[in-house]
Amino acid sequence: MVGGEAAAAVEELVSGVRQAADFAEQFRSYSESEKQWKARMEFILRHLPDYRDPPDGGGRLDQLLSLSMVWANHLFLGCSYNKDLLDKVMEMADGIEVEDLPQFTTRSELMKKHQG
Questions:
Q1: Is there a contact between 46 and 97 (Cβ–Cβ < 8 Å)?
Q2: Are the C-beta atoms of residues 60 and 52 closer than 8 Å to each other?
Q3: Are residues 72 and 36 in contact, defined by beta-carbon separation less than 8 angstroms?
Q4: Residue ranges of the XRN2-binding (XTBD) domain (predicted)?
Q5: Which of the listed residues 35, 66, 75, 92 has the most CB atoms within 10 Å of its CB?
Q6: pTM above threshold 0.90
Q7: pLDDT digits (tens, 9 = 90+) for 64-99
Q8: Which of 12-16, 40-44, 48-52, 55-59 has the highest mean pLDDT?
């Protein structure tokens, strides 16, 4: 019967993951590619337990969604943000692997190249 209990526990875990993914799907932007969305969804799901809104509100989920957009915009679009904010989202995303990221040259790098 231990095997049946283990199978039930696995099924419950899979069901919970499915529910979390279904919940996160509502936050997908229509302009996100599948690759961008999968990465951002992993970011969201990883931190969702820490950013659940308290019963009295508080906007913690909105904060998480904003942080996920900052991270995705930096990674996929080359957007730049305040160093402290970037440090925070990069730390939050540590371990999320995204392949074939675009390479960007910043304005500062271009200016240095032209001046030197």
A1: no
A2: yes
A3: yes
A4: 24-116
A5: 75
A6: no
A7: 999 999 999 999 998 989 999 999 999 999 999 998
A8: 40-44
Q: What type of residue sits at position 23?
A: F
* Centroid of chain to Cα 30: 16
Q: What is the largest CA-CA distance in the chain?
A: 74
Shortest CA distance to 92 belongs to which of 53, 57, 49?
49
pLDDT band for 57, please (50, 70, 90 cuts).
Answer: low
Q: Which two tokens stand for residue 12?
A: 């419950």
pLDDT in the model for residue 82 = 94
Give residues with Cβ within 8 angstroms of 110, minimum separation 6.
none
Cα–chain-centroid distance for residue 18? Answer: 17
- Residue 100 gets which letter from DSSP? S
In one-letter notation, the amino acid at residue 11 is E
Cα-Cα-Cα-Cα dihedral of 28, 30, 34, 40, to 10°? Answer: -30
List phi, psi (to 5°) of 79: -65, 145
Residue with tokens 């190249």: 113
Packing angle of the helix pair 60-72, 34-47 (nearest 10 deg) = 140
